[in-house]
From TrEMBL:
GO biological process, one term: transsulfuration
InterPro entries associated with the record: Cys/Met-Metab_PyrdxlP-dep_enz, PyrdxlP-dep_Trfase, PyrdxlP-dep_Trfase_major, PyrdxlP-dep_Trfase_small
Tree of life domain: Eukaryota
Sorted UniProt keywords: Lyase, Pyridoxal phosphate
Entry-annotated residues carrying N6-(pyridoxal phosphate)lysine: 245
Keyword check for Lyase: yes
Keyword Hydrolase carried by entry: no
Protein name listed in UniProt: Methionine gamma-lyase
UniProt-recorded Gene Ontology molecular function terms: carbon-sulfur lyase activity; methionine gamma-lyase activity; pyridoxal phosphate binding
GO CC, any one term: cytoplasm
Amino acid sequence: MADTIQNNNVVTPTKKRICPKESSPNDDFIVKKLATWEDPVSALANARHEFGEHGGVNMSIEASATFTVMEPETLSRMFTGELGPDRDFFIYSRHFNPTVLNLGRQMAALEGTEAAYCTSSGMSAISSVLMQLVSSGDHIVASHTLYGGTHALLAHFLPRSSNIATTFVDIRDLGKTKEAIMEGRTKVLYFESMSNPTLTVADIPGLSRIAHEKGVTVVVDNTFAPMVVSPARLGADVVVHSISKYISGGADIIAGAVCGPTSLVNSLMDLHQGAFMLLGPTMNAKVAFELSERIPHLGLRVKEHCHRALVYAQRMKKLGLKVIYPGLEDHPDHYLLKSISNKEYGYGGMLCLDMETEARANKLMDVLQNQTQFGLMAVSLGYYETLMSCSGNSTSSELNQDEKATAGISPGLVRMSIGYNGTLEQRWAQFEKALSKLQDSGLFSKK
């Protein structure tokens, strides 16, 4: 199967993958490449459109688990890799499925990579790609602020199951990040483009330069910032997603994706050594169809998420709340994000309110949901309703107290995924009403 997707998933030619911050003879070339790169929405529009079996404007769903052949010798030729999906030959849907492959093409277009493969969950995408790139005895350098499940995978599961160690660092400190890389042993530098939940923005060009100088592969989780940031354009080698979030938008599907070089996707699908092939994190074709129908309006949704998040963050700050949002000029990474983001998509749809204590955080969320209907107390993100959770006791609960403190997660940190349902002013009035109720109870006072 080694060559089966070589021509099937390629969407764009390989881009210059290093974007140095220091001057070099290639600086002008790199700047021009970045400046002329397609907008994500344009790239999606230029990707192949798959029509239905009978000429439908939407593709057909290939719901088969297995596929028939017309001649007996064809099957053996498929297993040797002579015939594959690039020539419309399929064996079994754990290998390749036409509907899932089409979603992969869309994800590759979105992220500007050669290829992409879609999986049954975000964690299956993350764990599979790490186990493909890192072997027993190898080493990973990772951000100390990550989604709790990813942190647990790196800190606990991989050391126990695979003898893979991880050093956690503050990726804002490029010097310490570089020092943590062990020559010859470190295989992956892993971080989130926008960290969960503290909204630290990664200097993707700078981190990629450091990693590539040491021969290390850069893997970036872009779940918080699809459309907003394109890590592969900025130097990252691999981009992973929990498609369950913004890309789905409906809080009804669990899915993931790995976007990267064709050679990586081929290796993940290798019959003898491929993590996707052998661990089997297969996406259902019906799920892939639903997701493929949502991606075309992702840009519109992201813009509205981001617009409302910025407006609310600005207004919350004026009310004296402690707001964390990279769209605010006082955020330490504001100008970094402004320099690396795709224009016109905003600064992300996530914001945090630091209420200092868990009791204050819980009271705020209780009033916002149960008395003023501003949003819902639930984990996840990218939904059309605003979702709220206290990160320390939910999505970051896998971290111990010291790890939370190091990551900057206070006990009262409320993570908000700002939705777009209802009008902006309607929702803001609900938020102000909640604050008024909190003022009456003595839990909040304006500065």
